[in-house]
Amino acid sequence: MDEGGLEQVRVQLQEFAAEVFAGLRRIDQRETGVRYLRGLMLDGQRKSMQPMAARLGVDHQQLQQFLTSSTWDVTGVRRRVATSAVGVVSPTVWVVDDTGFAKDGPASACVARQYSGTLGKVGNCQIAVSVHAACDAASAVLNWRLFVPESWDETCVPDETGKVANTHARRLRRQPVTLDEAGKKKPHLRKEVPREELIAQILARRAASKVPADERYRPKWLMALEMIDELAGWELYPPLLTADAGYGQVAEFRQGLTDRGISFVVATTSSTTAQPGHAEPTPVAYAGVGKYPTPRYPDPARSIKDLALDHGAGQAALVHWRERLPAAEGGDRPNGTLSGHFFALRVRPAGRSVREGLPPADDGVLPDCWLLVQWPPGQAEPSDYWLSDLPTDTSLTDLVQLAKSRWRIEHDYRELKTGLGLDHFEGRSWIGWHRHVTLVTTAQLFLTQLRAAVPKAAGQP
Q1: Residue 161: its pLDDT value, please?
Q2: How many other CB atoms sit within 10 Å of the CB of residue 152?
Q3: pLDDT in tens, 150-162
Q4: Spans in the chain with pLDDT lower than 50
Q5: pLDDT tens track for 305-358
Q6: 3-state secondary structure the chain
Q7: What's the whole-number average pLDDT of the chain?
Q8: Where is each Transposase IS701-like DDE domain found (predicted)?
Q9: What b-and-e string marks burial along 255-273, b requiring 16 or more CB atoms within 10 Å of the CB?
């Protein structure tokens, strides 16, 4: 958006900012907040502080101080943004996802060599987990968390026996060798750091980036549940939740949603194990000592891929789930609807994690749910799988439309990164990162609000 475009919506921006920044006590903080939003929405390749300050005609230290050392409450702003976003979007689903922020150096908060779907490989980056409200017409971010890798948590450093204090951390494996390009073993080149020195390095990095003492490594699915709980504390509740297989394959995550009364349609992997929906446990003979055993299923659980193969590709029906978006200017993408071949069957997810998460029972029966399968014609096996706890009378079309509703989030990330500089923050502090992404989210919500009122308002298509 250029200066002229911003001037046309100046009154709307002031009214919007007055609501979002209502909790900021000082007038200079509220003014700088509006200024930062203007900098994010103004045209320009970089949305880091110095380029934005140059376009705004202010000293970049004013923006830097606002992000890193000012006293305003970022949680209060996030709460007002999330509440407003739900009102603007009127979501049919919430979506859990994560995204990567590529970094060159090691000093930014929680940066590490880790896998990023954004990069498509292991790279030096930060990872953020996000919760979005979405419908077919719009979407908006409700909450953010910065993922804390094991390498940023001294409680994940193993002691002399290999044990770690962090209950969420997997046991770290020492790898004395690596593989070269030909696949042959070669000596491990990295020098092993003594435990005390490694802990001191982690503590120094955390102190330099001002990572709060209570922020520790935990899996991303648990961070998502924490954000859902925080949003519930703000009286915001999902109508239904979707997530990709990185979350959906985790039995504890699905059980966490069930415990919170949240319906879900989540992607999962072909190796997820289950019993057929019609399977019933059989009694086990009492050995004469100890507790009476619970009934057990006569056959071992199988992968959902095997269950889908048994069901057969011939059971798949053509389902249309939404209209194809208009092609970008100059594009040649055809119009029409997006469609694919699907079938759904009832299964009973199995595995130790499933059983451990269930309330006590003595009948041995696993709860059943939907297994939704996409099987493209001519392919030897299915391409995608989803699990859902929606009622048994849910139609196949409804299951497919909900499973495919995650597409809106790619638009969120594209606008947030390409248009609003989500990943352009160059500061190193924990609070600076969270304030930047909160303000970027605020700017996106303002543009979404404009588009809702005037469909051709400025913003990413």
Answers
A1: 85
A2: 21
A3: 999 999 999 888 8
A4: 171-179, 457-461
A5: 999 999 999 999 999 998 876 655 555 556 678 999 999 999 999 987 776 766
A6: CCHHHHHHCHHHHHHHHHHHCCCCCCHHHHHHHHHHHHHHHCCCCCCCHHHHHHHHCCCHHHHHHHHHCCCCCHHHHHHHHHHHHHHHHCCCEEEEEEEEEECCCCCCCCCEEEEECCCCEEEEEEEEEEEEEECCCCEEEEEEEECCCHHHCHHHCCCCCCCCCCCCCCCCCCCCEEECCCCCEEECCCCCCCHHHHHHHHHHHHHHHCCCCCCCCCCHHHHHHHHHHHHHHCCCCCCCEEECHHHHCCHHHHHHHHHCCCCEEEEECCCCEEEECCCCCECCCCCCCCCCCCCECCCCCEEHHHHHHHHCHHHCEEEEEEECCCCCCCCCCCCCEEEEEEEEEEEEECCHHHHHHCCCCCCCCCCCEEEEEECCCCCCCCCEEEEECCCCCCCHHHHHHHHHHHHHHHHHHHHHHHHCCHHHCCCCCHHHHHHHHHHHHHHHHHHHHHHHHCCCCCCCC
A7: 89
A8: 19-325
A9: bbbbeeebbbbbbbebebb
Give the amino acid at 405.
S
Instruction: For residue 91, give both structure tokens.
Output: 């979501």
Q: Which amino acid is at 45?
A: Q
Look up residue 456 and give its two tokens: 């051709």
